Amino acid sequence: MSVCSILGHNPEKVEYLDLQLNGDTEKYVDPNMIEYLADRSKGDLQVLSKQANTQIYSFFNQIIKILKSDENEQKKRIEMNNLFSFFQEPQHLNLGISLEGNTGKGTTAKELVKIFMREDVVSLILDESGLTIPQKTPLFPYFADDKLSDLTSNIIMNVIIEFNKKIVVLYPEMSSYLSSVNEEYNYYSNGTWKQMRHKPFIFSEKKVLFIPKDFATYKQTSSLSLLMRTILVEAIEKDKIKNNREKRKTKKEFEKENIAGNRTENTRKIYDESTEVSYKYYQKEVINKVKERLTKD
């Protein structure tokens, strides 16, 4: 059962992402989609996207600032823990794939700090590739689509709530499903965490907040497979020149010899040896993937 089926709405025509109430809504909030919409959408969606994108950039820039500082490791870890501390909050977004025994608290501060303080992740964040942190996350160990989605949605919770206020105006019949109790939500803006109160919807005894349909996709657009496909073009050409080959290896041959096994670790090795040409090609393909998803989704 979905929200649209209860309300009699057409999921293809509504602005909000239809949610499954008795199963998983296998979609994720994608910061690359939001960045694209901030520049290329119109009306209320563009206003919301611009605000969300500003907050996302502010948060990730704070990570870079902490990691670049001259503070010792312990102080940096404390600052990172403070930065991530609000990700223990329930979101009521009902996205992703649920796990047995999941308490609904999503990604925790402890695991995020552990990931972002890894030496290999720090060097990746601080490199000079020109890629954004979300575009680099496919190379983060233990950082799947759901973690980037949790991270992004918590940062922009005020924007999500503003969207929920707008859809009540757009669809007045939804007001009868609003909870009578305000819930507390945290969001990140202007370099600090802030709190706001809002009444979520309740459908089938489940607390619900909606996101703009175009903020989400079934798989993050910055994926390991896309990154690998784009940087292999340069790597294969280098291999041809280095070994004085008459012909280039096929991608399949090169992958079998250089990527098989630990795909994340092996792709990282090739990434580190890549140049600006490959990084820009990857960025271009991420944008193309966003366009494709916006058309299909």
TrEMBL record:
It comes from the Bacteria. Keywords: Plasmid. This is Uncharacterized protein. It comes from Macrococcoides caseolyticum.
